[in-house]
Amino acid sequence: MKKKDTTQRILDAAEALFAEKGVSNTSLREITSRAGVNLASVNYHFGSKLGLVEAVLKRRLDPLNKERLKRLQAIKREADSTGKAPSVRAIMQAIFEPILIMVDTQAFIRIIARSMTDPDETVKNVFLREIGPVFRLMFSLLMRALPHVPKDVLFWRVQFALGAMGHSLWAIGRVKMVPEGVDASISRDRLLELWLDFCTEGLENP
Amino acid sequence: MKKKDTTQRILDAAEALFAEKGVSNTSLREITSRAGVNLASVNYHFGSKLGLVEAVLKRRLDPLNKERLKRLQAIKREADSTGKAPSVRAIMQAIFEPILIMVDTQAFIRIIARSMTDPDETVKNVFLREIGPVFRLMFSLLMRALPHVPKDVLFWRVQFALGAMGHSLWAIGRVKMVPEGVDASISRDRLLELWLDFCTEGLENP
DNA sequence: GTAATAAACAAACATTTGTTTAAAATGTTT
DNA sequence: AAACATTTTAAACAAATGTTTGTTTATTAC
Questions:
Q1: Among the four A72, B27, B119, B182, which has the fewest Cβ within 10 Å?
Q2: Which chain C positions have some atom within 7 A of a protein CB?
Q3: What pLDDT does B36 receive?
Q4: Domain extent at residue B165
Q5: Is residue A42 part of a domain?
């Protein structure tokens, strides 16, 4: 049984710690000691902490957004050929579901969720660069699905939907404030279902 | 014209910087130099950086949640006396609108928005402690407004609504990714209106 | 007016941070 | 086996961080 590649071990450790405490609250020494490698190997393999951050994010966001794009393009093809408007629910599902099917660890989920709101400039930039094409295609499809909704209104409704997604993904498993008699535990599939109900309704508002 | 109190100037400078770059990415030296006061005065007046963070948050969250609580209690009284179910829209409005009417600066908005998502433990703890009673009352009122929605489902719908609010407040004025032909600028009142439409619909889902 | 208290100040402190260096160890090729 | 390239290691580096110190200045109380 061969020891895992140093690069991988660093990425795994960094992902877990970034997810838990954020990028700027995680030191290279924490990462390397958790990974069981030498401190200097981060700079050797990734050039700098910044390079590591980018690598951690890209490892997940890249295949995730590829899958999203694939699904959205399928929806677009279908709409083009049949001439019918695409379904709002299907579009939103193409955004959320890939997160679930590509899950390895809980840290992965948090990395995605945190990418959306992290104050760190690096994180935000990588995230925006990666999601750009996905977002544009999603928006154009939603416009076709909801021709009666003004663009500017639709834009903010999409922001609401994405905010809801990010926050709930972040909250899952670590909700602090639960009212009496409520069971806040939830499966990821169920969360997807509830989210789709919620924001399909909100997006299709007349 | 007397110079502003040192404490106030520190709070103002810290709020602006925390809002812009997050707590852990802001040094005391940045804060004090922006405030035009001595470095040591933060520790003198607030004990520690942690104390300053708490003070910055409490200065805003305290009156905000007082106002929210006042409104929610009024809704409860009305429902109690008439025996009719409270309005979902009114409840959600009681959560969002106080943010708008109590606005001084843009930094204030961002402080609120960031409080909801900041990875920093201090921020999160202060935020949760402050919003606890508000959240509980809101939830119990929503249960009366929507008796047909199971508690557990309602809980996550509320998470969606809050996530949408936090994200959009954060995004306002600093949206990075805007599709062609969309005007992403929006007034706060308009945002409130759109948000209420969106999440009222989502919450009332059958 | 003088003593007591509070506030402001410059300087230094001990840590922690990301990064670099140079040597040792390991792996690969000739 | 020797030469070379790659990787790992321990040590040190400079810069930045929150905090503490001793002193000076301003304000308040008697």
A1: B27
A2: 7-12, 16-22
A3: 92
A4: 57-204
A5: no
